[in-house]
Design brief:
- By secondary structure, the protein is mainly α.
- About 70% of the residues lie in helices and about 0% in strands.
- The chain contains 15 helices and one strand; from the N terminus they run αααααααβαααααααα.
- Helix 4 packs antiparallel against helix 7, helix 8 packs antiparallel against helix 11 and helix 8 packs antiparallel against helix 13.
- The longest helix has 29 residues.
- The protein is elongated and about 90 Å long.
Length: about 375
């Protein structure tokens, strides 16, 4: 354990750690802050999200047909509220409007300014609320109750924008994780070679087993980086409160995308985090090998850059709306779960390269 501790100390040098912290702050404000400050993003997304929260509190994580009938009564009550507001406003009465039903399907252009009042804060955005409620009820009818498509799956109450927002946030977080691993490990092996330390280490009591400790320290460092970024970026994301839907099925009539597997939102989050960890560990194994096989810093950088770029591209392909028909890999390959099919080999390849390099070092002749 002492050897592992000293190898970790060689990796976690203060200037490198400070550089990662600085780049992390810049990365957050450039790419992640938007997903936090503007969620849910405007109208009617805010009304749909609030409706999903209300229904989850009232009905649980799924909506059954009898609960759908109760939700239709809520629409009638909301329409009655809108009727009262419209009838009491002189601007609507001047054009002969007294009920929501007269406005539901739109109005001629000359009445557009009056109609748009229903979608302002003056009327508590009642127009957006009515449209969101009627739209979700229609989705339930067409996706669940229609005689030709009656099914048990898809009854979950889950707002689809949670997946869109989470995947954007995790994609940029995963990209930073790959870059931070590359920065942390990119020069550690080269620095040892320039200081002519390998031969000294091999002559120590641990001998050539030191290479095993070095690989373990590299993988453990990637795991520590993942945990730190999860605590920081995950803690910031938790302020949105989307964990409220943790037990809700993502196969939902409220979700605009098709989800291939019957996962809950919590399981979906854990799978995505697993992808991020796998990509970071795969990157760590490969960067460790490239760093220890480079004779100078320029060579180490030139080798690490293409690797990091490839892993960033893979992260963007895997983490952007995984397990849905909105994922770019699925759109090209039409394979359900293709994200795991790609992520697994990347992890095994990175670890395999690292272990093969350690095996090579242990058999290498000194002279």
């Amino acid at each position: 354990m002492r050897i592992l501790y000293y190898e970790l100390r060689k990796i976690w040098r203060l200037p490198v750690v400070l550089a990662i912290i600085f780049l992390g702050a810049v990365h957050y404000f450039l790419f992640l802050d938007f997903e936090i400050r503007f969620f849910p993003n405007g109208h009617p997304a805010a009304e749909k999200y609030a409706l999903a929260q209300e229904w989850t509190k009232k009905y649980g994580s799924t909506m059954e047909p009898d609960e759908y009938a109760d939700a239709k009564q809520n629409y009638a009550a909301l329409a009655a509220e809108a009727d009262a507001r419209i009838a009491a406003d002189s601007r609507f009465r001047a054009h002969g409007f007294s009920r929501w039903e007269q406005l539901r399907d739109g109005v001629p252009e000359e009445y557009r300014d009056t109609y748009d009042l229903l979608f302002t804060g003056e009327f508590d955005f009642v127009g957006y609320r009515l449209q969101s409620l009627s739209g979700t009820l229609l989705s339930y009818e067409t996706q669940i109750l229609h005689p030709r498509v009656q099914r048990e799956s898809g009854r979950g109450i889950f707002p689809g924008q949670c997946i869109d927002n989470l995947s954007e946030y995790l994609c940029w977080t995963g990209i930073f994780g790959i870059v931070s691993v590359t920065i942390l490990l990119g020069a550690c092996g080269t620095r040892e070679d320039l200081c002519r330390m390998p031969a000294m280490l091999w002559s120590s009591r641990a001998g050539r087993h030191t290479a095993c400790y070095q690989l373990a320290a590299a993988l453990l460092s990637a795991s520590i980086l993942f945990a730190a970024e999860l605590l920081i970026f995950g803690g910031i994301y938790a302020r949105l409160g989307t964990q409220f839907f943790w037990d809700s099925p993502v196969q939902s009539f409220l979700n605009g995308s098709a989800v291939w597997f019957g996962l809950t939102y919590g399981q979906y989050v854990l799978y995505c985090l697993g992808f991020v960890l796998a990509l970071m560990l795969g990157t760590a194994g490969a960067v460790f090998t490239l760093s220890h096989s480079s004779g100078n810093y320029t060579s180490a950088i030139m080798k690490a850059l293409p690797l990091a770029a490839g892993m960033v591209f893979a992260a963007a392909s895997i983490l952007m709306r995984p397990f849905t028909d909105g994922n770019e890999l699925y759109r090209h390959l039409h394979i359900c779960g293709v994200e795991a099919v790609l992520c697994g080999p990347l992890l095994l390849a990175g670890l395999g390269i690292g272990f093969l390099f350690v095996r090579h070092i242990q058999r290498k002749e000194l002279l």
